[in-house]
């Protein structure tokens, strides 16, 4: 298989590449390295520094490498920043996705796997299934919603099947010790806690404690990045075999509040202090996955679905990158 991963120098993309390499595929990575890192790029892949806003480059990559499957990960993903800089997010996440889809015209691409987000659902009561009417609240969520729309819209016209993967929150790092989350700007709770866990006087901000949730803080469903990357392989195999488009939630089906996660950290880092701040624009109160459709589709069991394991893995990675120059 000839595979293109846009954003493959990023956190999740690098984990997908690591698992695909073991399956002897030819992998092309396109990344502008804005929030991606050269050291996350697997040496067995072909790396092209470039941007999804460069239409000509996209067409030439798809044709030159006869790409059959695309994992489209490249995007900006800071929820608060998206509220402030809508145009920046529109150009990258919406227009960039559209460029890539249009480049699929007359190409050998048959599978298009898109990194979407549970934020397309908006606030939910209880767990959320794929059939729920979409109600994106913030601008980042809106860009993912529009991305999904375009992926669906062009699929018949350009003759590819798609998988829309709606990730919940992603954390942890590969057991190989070679890759993990480096970028600090995304505002991810477990990454921030892992950074703090190495400090003498650790402090963590909690944005909003007046949400209509069990303890007033936001509730999320955290998935280990290795399991999430593995789902991408399943998704590709499914599209190759069944040749039918699908939409699926990628979460474990269990919601943890910010306070619960912080308290787990506190067990090992007793002097962790908490700073309560205003709600972050674009954040929703609660979202966690209904996993029924996923189970029916893939009949797969996660290997890393323990919150303690996820947190430990994030801390170990943080320790590692703090010692390596
Ligand atoms: N991390 C999460 O919890 C989470 C949750 C839901 C959805 N997602 C989605 O998963 C995808 C990957 O996220 P991640 O956590 O790995 O983030 P990341 O920032 O590590 O990866 C994104 C990569 O895309 C690259 N990129 C951005 N704009 C680009 C452009 N115009 N051209 C080429 N490359 C570009 C960046 O340099 C980076 O390497 C994103 O689409 C994100 O929206 C992530």
3D architecture notes:
This protein has 325 residues and is an alpha/beta fold. It has ten helices and 15 strands. It has a seven-stranded parallel beta sheet, sandwiched between helices. Helix 6 (189-197) packs parallel to helix 8 (258-268). Nicotinamide-adenine-dinucleotide binds at residues 6-7, 9-13, 30-36, 51-53, 73-75, 77, 92, 96, 115, 117, 167, 169-170, 183.
Q: What is the CATH topology assignment of the largest domain?
A: Rossmann fold
Distance linking N and C termini: 35 Å
How many DSSP helices?
A: 10
Oligomer: single chain
Tally of distinct domains = 2
Give the SSE string: EHEEHEHHEEHEEHEEEHEEHEEHH
User: Regarding CATH, which class of the largest domain?
Assistant: Alpha Beta
Q: Beta-sheet strand percentage? A: 15-25%
Bound molecules: nicotinamide-adenine-dinucleotide
Q: How does CATH name the architecture of the largest domain? A: 3-Layer(aba) Sandwich
Q: Total number of β-strand segments?
A: 15
Given as residue ranges, the uncertain stretches (5+ residues, pLDDT < 50) are none
CATH superfamily membership of the largest domain: NAD(P)-binding Rossmann-like Domain
SS-derived structural category? alpha/beta
Question: Which word captures the global form?
Answer: globular
Keywords:
325 residues; alpha/beta; UDP-galactose 4-epimerase, domain 1; 15 strands; 39% helix; 19% strand; binds nicotinamide-adenine-dinucleotide
Please summarize what this structure is:
The protein is α/β, with parallel strands linked by helices. It contains ten helices and 15 strands.
């Amino acid at each position: 298989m000839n595979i293109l991963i846009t954003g493959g120098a990023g956190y999740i993309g690098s984990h997908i590449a690591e698992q695909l390499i073991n399956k002897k595929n030819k992998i092309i990575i396109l990344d502008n390295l804005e929030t991606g890192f050269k050291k996350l790029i697997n040496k067995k892949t072909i790396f092209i520094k470039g941007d999804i806003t460069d239409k000509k480059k996209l067409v030439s990559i798809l044709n030159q490498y006869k790409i059959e499957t695309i994992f489209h990960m490249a995007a900006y993903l800071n929820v608060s920043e998206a509220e402030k800089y809508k145009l920046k997010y529109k150009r990258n996440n919406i227009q960039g996705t559209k460029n890539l889809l249009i480049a699929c015209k007359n190409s050998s691409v048959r599978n298009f796997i898109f990194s979407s987000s549970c934020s397309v659902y908006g606030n939910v009561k209880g767990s959320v299934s794929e059939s729920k009417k979409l109600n994106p609240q913030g601008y980042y969520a809106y860009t993912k919603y529009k991305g999904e729309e375009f992926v669906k819209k062009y699929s018949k016209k350009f003759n590819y099947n798609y998988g829309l993967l709606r990730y919940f929150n992603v954390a942890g790092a590969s057991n190989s010790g070679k890759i993990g989350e480096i970028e600090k700007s995304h505002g991810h709770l477990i990454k921030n806690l892992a950074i703090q866990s190495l400090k003498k006087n650790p402090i963590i901000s909690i944005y909003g404690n007046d949400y209509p949730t069990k303890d007033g803080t936001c509730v999320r469903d955290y998935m280990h990045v290795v399991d999430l990357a593995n789902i991408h392989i399943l998704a590709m195999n499914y599209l190759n075999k069944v040749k039918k488009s699908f939409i699926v939630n990628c979460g474990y089906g269990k919601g943890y509040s910010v306070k619960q996660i912080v308290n787990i950290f506190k067990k090992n880092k007793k002097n962790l202090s908490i700073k309560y701040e205003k709600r972050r624009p674009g954040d929703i109160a609660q979202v966690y996955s209904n996993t029924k459709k996923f189970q029916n589709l893939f009949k797969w069991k996660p290997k890393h679905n323990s919150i303690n394991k996820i947190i430990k893995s994030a801390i170990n990675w943080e320790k590692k990158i703090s010692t390596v120059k």
